[in-house]
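Quick one, probably user error.
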């Protein structure tokens, strides 16, 4: 799998001259996790992007690796993002079952490889999309909790319903604690065009989940079209 990954980097990332640096970094991450008895085999034995995303979250929950990544110009997170994208797009891994939407992005001659990467990774709240939400919000949009490692980059208008610009637009996103992300994704909470929370009648005992009718988030005019979509198409009244 390591060799297949390196070949994919060469073919799809023309600006990367040393793909072996990224595969070696993934091997290093594997060794770190093995030493902590968190995985038994290397990451190259894992072929599902969802699993790598979970491992990425686990890996950066350790301060030593989180700060090592920051000090090392984000080489660790960049390597994992590349592997996530690879698993999402590679026919060799997915047995020729690449989703049509992703295939159309790959084949789009009007997009640069960097733009394609950003769009594909945004599907899972990763890459530059996540970074842009952290820069915009700085903390959980609802609670104000500021540990970025725990927060989820959540689309307001879902990725599948968005065009390529909307998929990476920082205003089409909230930075949320996992519980709030799940509630928002299920349409059990939403926000008015003034930023006031809307709570679905289907959500039982919202106070237990720290959901208050007094909750209000700070929004700008650029958020409005996305919130309007969520209110009308996703929110369960």
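Nope, works fine. Designed sequence:
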């Amino acid at each position: 799998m390591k060799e297949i990954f390196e070949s994919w980097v060469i073919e799809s990332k023309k600006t990367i001259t040393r793909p072996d640096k990224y595969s070696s970094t993934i091997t290093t991450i594997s060794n770190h996790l093995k030493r902590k008895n968190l995985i038994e085999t290397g990451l190259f034995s894992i072929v599902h992007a969802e699993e790598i995303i979970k491992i990425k979250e686990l890996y950066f929950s350790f301060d030593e690796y989180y700060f090592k990544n920051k000090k090392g110009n984000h080489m660790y997170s960049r390597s994992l993002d590349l592997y996530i994208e690879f698993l999402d797009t590679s026919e060799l891994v997915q047995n020729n079952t690449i989703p049509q939407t992703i295939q159309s992005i790959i084949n789009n001659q009007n997009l640069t490889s960097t733009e394609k990467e950003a769009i594909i990774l945004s599907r899972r709240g990763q890459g530059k999309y996540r970074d842009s939400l952290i820069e915009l919000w700085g903390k959980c949009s609802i609670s104000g909790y500021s540990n970025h490692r725990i927060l989820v980059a959540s689309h307001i208008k879902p990725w599948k319903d968005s065009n390529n610009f909307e998929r990476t637009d920082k205003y089409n996103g909230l930075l949320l604690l996992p519980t709030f992300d799940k509630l928002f994704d299920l349409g059990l909470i939403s926000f008015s065009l003034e930023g006031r929370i809307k709570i679905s009648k289907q959500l039982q005992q919202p106070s237990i989940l720290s959901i208050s009718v007094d909750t209000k988030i700070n929004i700008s005019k650029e958020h409005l079209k996305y919130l309007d979509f969520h209110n009308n198409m996703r929110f369960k009244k």
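The beta strands are 152-155, 173-176, 189-191, 197-199.
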